[in-house]
Amino acid sequence: MTQKNVETAMWVLRIAVAGEFLGHGVFALQGKAQWVGWMQQLIGMDAGFATQLLLMIGVLDLIVAFFVLVKPIRAIVLWAALWGFWTAILRPLVGEPIWDFIERWANWGAPLALLFLSGWPKKGREWLEDATAR
Description:
Elements: H1 3-29, H2 33-43, H3 47-70, H4 74-93, H5 98-103, H6 105-118
Helix pairs in contact: 1-3, 1-6, 2-3, 4-6
């Protein structure tokens, strides 16, 4: 794979991850009723608190989308992979079919692929560097 191909693949992954987090962020800001219900079911919180927490999650998702698109810091890309995995596996935990998890493998696979293409950090400070800087 040429350097140009790697750079193109990284841009495709950045756009995909940013789109995922932008979409999820907007749904969270809108207080998507299904997600509020999942939070109530999983954690046992009241609807008002679940909606407020979802609002904060939505803002965080928008921040992740922005950084992945503009300056994909490795720690943020890792967070995107972990959060993508959590939100995918959450579905069977709240009673949705396992296929809802499988369908969302790209939610964690795309940021993980971006992270591996950028080079897995060997030192702690590299987690705070731009994943596209080589």
